[in-house]
Amino acid sequence: MNERPHLAVVGAGPAGLAAALAAAGRGVRVTLIDSAAEAGGQFYRQTAAALGARRPQALHHQWRTWERLRDGLAVHIEAGRITHLTDHHVWFVERHDAPRGADGADGPGRVADGAGGFTAHALLGPEQEQPVAVRADAVLLATGGYEKVLPFPGWTLPGVVTAGGAQAMLKGGLVLPGRTAVVAGTGPLLMPVAAGLAAAGAKVAALVESADPRAFVRHARTLAAQPATSAAKLAEGAQYAAELARHRVRTLVHHTVVAAHGSGRLEAVTVAALDGDGRIRPGTERRIPCDSLAVGHGMLPHTDLAQALGCRLDGLNVAVDDEQRTDVPGVWAAGETTGIGGAVLSMAEGRIAGLSIAARLDSRTPDVRSYQAAAKARTGLREFFAALEAVYAPPAHWTEQITDDTVVCRCEEVPASAIREAVDELGAGDVRTVKLLTRAGMGWCQGRMCGPAVAGLAGCAPEPSRRPFARPVPLGVLARAGETDDQGNVTAY
Amino acid sequence: MTSRRSPLSPLTPQSPQSPQSPLELVRARPNPAFTVTFDDREITALPGQTIAAALWSAGITSWRTTRERGEPRGVFCGIGVCFDCLVTVNGQANQRACLVRAEAGDVIRTQEGNGHHE
Ligand SMILES: Cc1cc2nc3c(=O)[nH]c(=O)nc-3n(C[C@H](O)[C@H](O)[C@H](O)COP(=O)(O)OP(=O)(O)OC[C@H]3O[C@@H](n4cnc5c(N)ncnc54)[C@H](O)[C@@H]3O)c2cc1C
Ligand code: FES
After folding, report:
1. Mutate to test the pocket of ligand 2, among B51, B73, B77, B89 (most ligand atoms within 8 A of CB)
2. Could you report the per-residue pLDDT of B52-62, keeping only the tens digit for each?
3. What angle do CA B41, B43, B49 make, to 5 degrees?
4. Which of A117, A197, A361, A379 is 20 to 30 A from A189 in CA distance terms?
5. Beta bridge partners of A32
6. What is the CATH number of the domain that holds B56?
7. Using a CB-CB distance cutoff of 8 angstroms, which residues of chain A are in contact with residue B70?
């Protein structure tokens, strides 16, 4: 074998890009696979080229870092070290056993433990029908996450979108969800979203954050324990706050959206103040007219590919060691799939993973000094985000706001009453049983949207659900997957 | 008023010279626009935009009705995860409008129920 070792990176966001550049820079051949039309992931989601944005950075922060990633990628692509597959949706990563008796006791795999390599199965294009397969010696999962939204009456009305979704539609397609927006929920994503919408010409009637400012004070010590990280993050927050001030966006802290109103589409929201226990303070409700509501209650990691590979999870996150290795030999994970912590943390983890992969594929132990700075940033940011998680919280009694007729499972249209009945009368105590009894979580999105709400109503902790594949797969593609030709290549690519 | 000032609240609004649209903000010079139809009505779309973005630009926020309650739906997650934005494009049902890019002449239709009884 004289070919260079081959790494497949799933996800071209900050984590995947940082990893691809680090690995390619050390002699690894990389195939970077992403479902989007352009690299960037969520944080650096690019405006479609045909829209001819001459000042795309007006929608972004930390643009210089993006320019470095983008230019680095272009250089490696030009040199043939990185192949970037856009519009490729990976639905399954297959791990091959090492062929027995082949060259040497360890098998021919590049990874010293004898793995026989991997095949990433993808579907091409937004219609996702044409299958493509990529063989690799190692895999990095950098699939990021998606937004969590907890239900409230009216949340299925058109005009109610996730906060990140509004941002993604704006950055990618230069469109706004409406003229007058309310941004609501909890978490560090709300400020950039409100600032983005306002800068692009929407009237942002209010930013409604349920976090209690006193929680910041309570956690001030943890936040201050990482002075460098905290200073950078607070500066970032101050910048967003200044942008919001410039656009005269009013922030209501310790408030929540009680309901969205409208017939056929959103016309207004009712917001209210929270009391010390996290309940609606009676008499504080008020109505804000708006035609769009961008709402989010934090993020959840995409872990389907890792779970199907058999990787251990730590809570809801893919578990990794100091080198970003999962417990499945040959599989690394980096970025928000291993825990939510923003773009800078994703990049640090990606860089560490890329350097580890380059060394391990060469049967070496990575030199810790080569990623000292990234490891330090990783430690600081992980602690910082752990503290933030305690600060940014949905109202403690959010389930009480869900009226019986509120649809909880958007796909199967399961109302809260059905879930409460399954729990209270039929004794369901976990998400899986509720699903079997009510169909909540059985629809197109496979419970990604309703999972946290169903867990909340059932009174149990959210659990990672097992999905056979990361994407719906046409039956014909499934039937052919795993067929190999004479050369041992799997299907098309 | 119950709103309280906090470290998160902006204090000094200034008068901004704000752009009026996202296109203006990034000084976009898009390739020539084209038309598509939505339920037989002609709408203008810009190249590069997804079906969802083109519909939003035309002020349309729903293009599906649900199977049980017949409720209108459109974009929710915006990134291909929730499947709320399903729509029929050129006769093909269950396309995610937030992922599929609009092409000149596309025939877009509101999808009713599972989209299989047209
Ligand atoms: C919709 C949305 C908008 C956001 N906007 C902002 C923002 O404006 N500001 C901010 O600070 N933070 C934002 N975030 C938070 C954001 O997640 C992080 O800032 C950062 O992008 C995480 O980097 P990452 O590399 O870990 O993952 P991501 O940036 O999420 O990158 C993951 C990539 O993997 C791809 N992918 C996932 N699964 C597959 C698959 N099966 N096959 C192929 N490709 C796949 C995705 O297309 C994506 O490009 C947003 C999050 C979301 C969900
Ligand atoms: S809006 Fe969620 S899949 Fe399109």
Report:
1. B77
2. 999 999 999 99
3. 140
4. A379
5. A9, A84
6. 3.10.20.440
7. none
Enter the ipTM: 0.92
At A414, is the secondary structure helix, strand, or coil?
strand
- Alpha carbon distance A114, A96 (integer Å): 10
Contacts of B100 in chain A (CB under 8 A): 126-127
- Chain B closest CA to A322's CA: distance in Å? 30
Q: Which pair of tokens denotes residue B3?
A: 């709103």
d(CA B99, CA B75): 11
Distance between CA atoms of residues A144 and A37, nearest Å: 16
User: A6-145+300-366 in CATH: which number?
Assistant: 3.50.50.60
pTM: 0.92
Does ligand 1 come within 6 angstroms of the Cβ of A340?
Answer: no
Amino acid at B24: E
Atom of ligand 1 minimally distant from the CA of A335: 26
Instruction: Please report which confidence band the pLDDT of residue B9 belongs to, taking 50, 70 and 90 as the band edges.
Output: very low
The predicted-structure confidence for A405-462, as pLDDT tens digits, reads as follows 999 999 999 999 999 999 999 999 889 999 999 999 999 999 999 999 999 999 988 8
Which residue pairs, CB below 8 angstroms and at least 24 apart, start in A101-108? Answer: A108/A1
* Number of domains forming the structure of chain B: 1
